[in-house]
TrEMBL record, chains A, B:
Gene: aspS
Domain Aminoacyl-transfer RNA synthetases class-II family profile as annotated: residue spans: 156-576
Reaction(s) this enzyme catalyzes, per UniProt: tRNA(Asx) + L-aspartate + ATP = L-aspartyl-tRNA(Asx) + AMP + diphosphate
Domain of life: Bacteria
NCBIfam families assigned: aspS_bact, PRK00476.1
Predominant location category: cytoplasm
Family the UniProt entry places it in: Belongs to the class-II aminoacyl-tRNA synthetase family. Type 1 subfamily.
Molecular function, one GO term: nucleic acid binding
Summary of the function given for this chain in its UniProt record: Aspartyl-tRNA synthetase with relaxed tRNA specificity since it is able to aspartylate not only its cognate tRNA(Asp) but also tRNA(Asn). Reaction proceeds in two steps: L-aspartate is first activated by ATP to form Asp-AMP and then transferred to the acceptor end of tRNA(Asp/Asn).
Organism this protein belongs to: Chthoniobacter flavus Ellin428
Binding positions for ATP per the UniProt entry: 235-237, 244, 503, 555-558
UniProt key word DNA-binding: no
Cited CDD domains: AspRS_core (cd00777), EcAspRS_like_N (cd04317)
Record's protein name: Aspartate--tRNA(Asp/Asn) ligase
Cited SUPFAM superfamilies: Class II aaRS and biotin synthetases, GAD domain-like, Nucleic acid-binding proteins
Amino acid sequence: MLHLCPNPATFRAPAMYRTHSCHQLRPADIGQSVTLAGWVNTNRDQGGVIFVDLRDREGVTQIVFRSEENADATVHAHKLRSEDVIQITGKVAARLPGTENAKLATGAIEIIATDLKVLNKADVPPFPLDDPKVNEDLRLEYRYLDLRTDHMQRNLKLRHRIVKATRDYLDDAGFLEIETPVLSNPTPEGARDFLVPSRLNPGTFYALPQAPQQYKQLLQVAGLEKYFQIARCFRDEDLRADRQPEFTQIDVEASFITDVEIQTLIEGMLKRIFKEARGVDIPTPFPRMTYADAMNRFGSDKPDLRFGLELVDLADIFKESGFKVFRSVADSGGVIKALNAKGAAALLSKEQLKKWEEWVKTEFGAKGLAYIKWSEGGEWESPIVKFFSDAEKKALAERMGFAAGDVLFFGADMKLEAVAEVLGRVRLRCADILGLLAAKKDELNFLWVVDFPLLAFSPEDNHWVAVHHPFTRPKAEDMPALEAGEYAKVRAVAYDVVLNGVELGGGSIRIHEKDLQTKMFEVLGVGPEEQQLKFAHLLRAFSFGAPPHGGIALGLDRLVMLAVGAESIREVIAFPKNNRGCDLMTHSPVEVDFKQLREVYISSTAKKN
Amino acid sequence: MLHLCPNPATFRAPAMYRTHSCHQLRPADIGQSVTLAGWVNTNRDQGGVIFVDLRDREGVTQIVFRSEENADATVHAHKLRSEDVIQITGKVAARLPGTENAKLATGAIEIIATDLKVLNKADVPPFPLDDPKVNEDLRLEYRYLDLRTDHMQRNLKLRHRIVKATRDYLDDAGFLEIETPVLSNPTPEGARDFLVPSRLNPGTFYALPQAPQQYKQLLQVAGLEKYFQIARCFRDEDLRADRQPEFTQIDVEASFITDVEIQTLIEGMLKRIFKEARGVDIPTPFPRMTYADAMNRFGSDKPDLRFGLELVDLADIFKESGFKVFRSVADSGGVIKALNAKGAAALLSKEQLKKWEEWVKTEFGAKGLAYIKWSEGGEWESPIVKFFSDAEKKALAERMGFAAGDVLFFGADMKLEAVAEVLGRVRLRCADILGLLAAKKDELNFLWVVDFPLLAFSPEDNHWVAVHHPFTRPKAEDMPALEAGEYAKVRAVAYDVVLNGVELGGGSIRIHEKDLQTKMFEVLGVGPEEQQLKFAHLLRAFSFGAPPHGGIALGLDRLVMLAVGAESIREVIAFPKNNRGCDLMTHSPVEVDFKQLREVYISSTAKKN
């Protein structure tokens, strides 16, 4: 027999830190002896009696120090400062009648402290924790303090709950979470990759994955059938607005599955997530809208359907117009659309309309923004209306339901996408100033956008590129068009899920046949040599019994942001980077010794300051 | 009102791929019309009737094609090859009496196929999927085929179940999973980092985390109290044996917690994991052993306690020995130990003992391996015994329980660690040849090793280094020794959890006081400037109310390997790299265009072949 230290209890530390959390005690516990630990939220002296609000992750409890109980502790309690870390022991007591705090779960009781232990002192924080107006850079530099706020604690707790609900749901549905490599290969035709030099293979590089796309497809070839992963992904993009160089996605792929089955699966998942995060039951199935409809009616492939403000076709009205711009577009089969911002006339002065015009010019490179404003009791004000015939005006007013108080905005271009780009954004701005968004702040409007185009012609590259990615499946009924080279007509079995005008995620049924995949590469101008170099393993895998498969990926950070009602993804990420990719708390990234670089066979070409 | 495509059902694909899995149908389903999809496992022609074993992720079902039902399908079924992907429709029928397959869950039924659809043809695989002797490089190159084997499917399913059980358990215990950055800072005093050049910050680099150590401590300062993460970690080491450049760890950290509370938490977690993976109830609490005991008695800080073969102290016996090596060590307060390999004499020839000696010389740089072999009916055979006095021999035999048939192995050195290194490994080899390991193959022997030394003197660096890491807390009772500069005497509040001689993980209670952390840096030779450069944010965080905290990390890959009974971590990782850090399937890492390097301000210094 081996002789071991017989009783683990002999290793027990002399004390435990607490018997209860600061959210736990209730009148039923009165009389009990308890130990609590946490941070000093506030302390105040009322005639020699010290009241400390003690805070931990779960809540707040009022602690009372009186000289009768412990004179020494009371003296020390008087000196406590906010954010000091303490441990107290005492008896649970009822608060004096009239001093209960109904807002606090523990508000009916207090602890009469008999003992105080200061575990760690705190300096005065560089900013008041509960001030929402503190500069974000300062909050990011002291992120560990910022994370103590109710707001951030709530967000991170809800993020955990959402991710747990997601995993539970997918596990229930028979999906296996499988980890794929972070040290992987460059993404062909993706955004810019982050590179990692290899020390064991001089002159070569790993890339951090932009998505586990190929691995998840290979897991289908491997017969795992139902895969998911809450996967960290990376894109080295210029960080505009609300982007992060690393982000997390809910990555799902399955075999022997149809597009509608995937959509139904994801609807159920979102139902569970929003139940968990908000306690609401979102109705399913979500409505479906084709890409063509979304673009035509709302000027967006992720339309916000909480309000109308639909775009209306006008090309037929202006076929013989005196307004040359419209006539030439209408004549050549182009697109003329308008939307009616009902009741916006009083909200938009001439100066403001001028600013809107400037905005569409700089933001979208548009030539201008045609409008007609009709103030109550006034005339049509517009730089273009003088070119319209009476018949055109009548037809326009009728079709648009144009009335006094309204403003019409126009878009005209040979390409729908160009009209949609401008009017889609003008639509959102109109909704904003009309208060339509504020009125529907709490509405959750889900939508599937389907039937995306498979291919788009890229004038810069002078060839067709994949709208989604090169592995996306063409719709069966559009295969003849693909064969015939009528690429613009080919739709993909691809779908995006949209919430309140924000794209939550997208996916597609994939190509699983080697021949079709090879054909697709040819269409995309990927020659045999490049195929061999970048896709040999995938094409080879497809020749050994690849099942039909498809999937979807949802951006977790954005989903959590919307689910918890945060303003930015930085509010749902524990340690986000700023828009230069820097972590202000740890000062990452940093310079490293040239010897470290030499070890991985690279040198820096950056100019020294 | 918005007009949307009214009924999602109109988007439904024309067919679903299957109504049941290949593991699902039973005699109760006889007569039902079903559709199945999967891979052809085998097909055979019995007098014109074709029997196909159809396989999917869940199991196998026998499909029967007969000309009476569908002549055309039967002709095609005849031509099917292994790994072809098919969809079949047919009726569930009872197998003929005597042809049932009791080994198969679906073995009492078969499907009489009325329809066959070949979804994808398969080329002949480059190796037979069920041959365990296939070269690993080939299996890794065609990993998507290797993953189709029962063995790998089982491992990945169990890995998923284990990870799910871990998350469920920690969630139940109130822990929040919080993601920390992958693009982070170099690890001070760690292994070699993987570097990622920053494009937005020329000349600077991110490092991939070796562990989320500082982030998890900062989350404690942030008041999140109970954190965990199944975290991807990275180490750019030379890949010996069973290592991977990226690995996954169960990372746990909590505030207001004692070492024993953490250990109890982890015991519960392992209990749940082994219940899930093996259906066994492992007894808790685990025994505890101090580092000093483990080294003294078993020559290892992760002793395998499934067998004895303890090391025994002999220094007092050889204080005046004629054998100079022993005498001088014993005289100077050094360590002399031996272990008795009971019954090993018949298993170890003189040549084999010679080989063992060679092995300890090359592997550990030992000067030799002293032994005494006592064959049944023979004399003591040994190069050293001639120097021993009769009294020494008697004392030795008595203390070691030395008998005919046994072999004694000796170690002598001024340092315990040197003796332990050799005899610890000799002990394992003895257990192996004596069949002690084989006999206890299925035993799960868990152990906590505690009271590790805090510091070790590094002759190369000529200063003291942290045994665990610089944030580890000294034991309260050893604080006087730390103050007095008696660093060798200071023990850490650090603990490792060991299973069958394999370290599953380790952790510690951390330093949470700025002053003590600064003192520790001084002891470790980290001057004020370096502290400022590398640890400023941590030291600053400690000054704003850091709670007492501690944690642990367990290597997930190794844990899963042991739980499922795999031989290598590569068998529980979907896409592992080989021992040169290469993914043989995707040929990662790769050369990249110099323009891509220029964009991130680096150039390659590798010599071109």
